[in-house]
Write a structure and sequence with these properties.
Blueprint (H helix, E strand, L loop, with lengths): L1 H26 L16 H25 L2 H27 L1
Keywords: Membrane, Transmembrane, Transmembrane helix
Protein name: DUF3784 domain-containing protein
């Protein structure tokens, strides 16, 4: 049962993290998003969503360690990957529009 709840937490956390990136990309429509610093516009909702998403994924992946071992790290990375891929896709779209 704990494994099921942990998997649900991983998926929910990944979705919340992706939503945080989506909020930032919509707020910065027409502007490139930097990787290692703050974008020009950072809505408060995006920061809160990002914190909740990362916390959910991390805690849930920690509960999966007894079942998956070191593979739980891959689960953590895969859950956050869609949000991280959204940034270069946004930047590519901006570059193509110019």
């Amino acid at each position: 049962m704990i494994d099921l709840v942990a998997w649900l937490g991983v998926f929910a956390g990944g979705a919340v993290f992706y939503q945080s990136v989506k909020v930032v990309t919509e707020a910065n429509a027409g502007r490139r998003l930097p990787y290692w610093r703050r974008p020009e516009v950072t809505p408060r909702a995006a920061i809160g969503l990002r914190v909740v998403g990362i916390a959910l994924v991390t805690a849930s992946a920690a509960f999966l360690v007894p079942a998956l071992g070191y593979s739980a790290i891959a689960v953590l990375v895969m859950a956050l990957l869609p949000g991280l891929v959204a940034i270069p896709l946004h930047n590519r779209r901006i570059t193509a529009d110019e």
